[in-house]
Amino acid sequence: MNTLDQISRTVENQKHTAIAAFVPLELSLLNSKPAPDSWSILECLEHLNRYSRYYNPVLAKAIAANAGGNTDQTISYTWLGKKSLDMVRPENGKKSKTVKHMNPNNSQLGRQTLEEFLDHQTELLQLLDKAKGANLNKKAIPVEFFKLLKLRIGETLEFVALHQERHLQQALNVKKQLPVNQAAA
Q1: 129 FRET partner, CA 20 to 30 A, in 123, 138, 142, 180?
Q2: Residue 181: burial class (beta carbons within 10 Å; 0-12, 13-18, 19+)
Q3: Which Pfam families has this protein been placed in (predicted)?
């Protein structure tokens, strides 16, 4: 079982990783792709931005609507929640096909993509803090690609953090494949 504090530490680490690994890079390197059908660093971050644009406001609304003295930070999981988490775990090497509107492949992206990603992390950390007073086990978050299905607040927060970790690892792998003399920055 995960707690909000563990998830917060994960998100904080993700934010610091992005700052240390990607902020120093030139825009051309941030847009560099190891292969035509793979994503660049910025495309990985843009994919996460697209999810954050949906999940952060939905989480904010659900947390506010379900606030009220709940101090139990134990997250319990639905079948759908477990399945969703297993799918996005970084150690799950199985490729998943993303829904079309969440696929940033061949996008023209600038440094604002990285800045937006960092802003979303700050916002997510604030949501995690607010969630400490909410009912984490309330089914209140419609799944982005099929809104009839709902996840619990706590499992959604964990899903967002794990999904981010998966694609940050992907972006770090792209960085490793950049030309050595250029990526050392």
Answers
A1: 142
A2: exposed
A3: DinB_2 (PF12867)
What pTM was estimated for this model as a whole?
0.91
Q: Tell me the per-residue pLDDT of 128-141, one tens digit each, with 9 for 90 and over.
A: 999 998 999 989 89
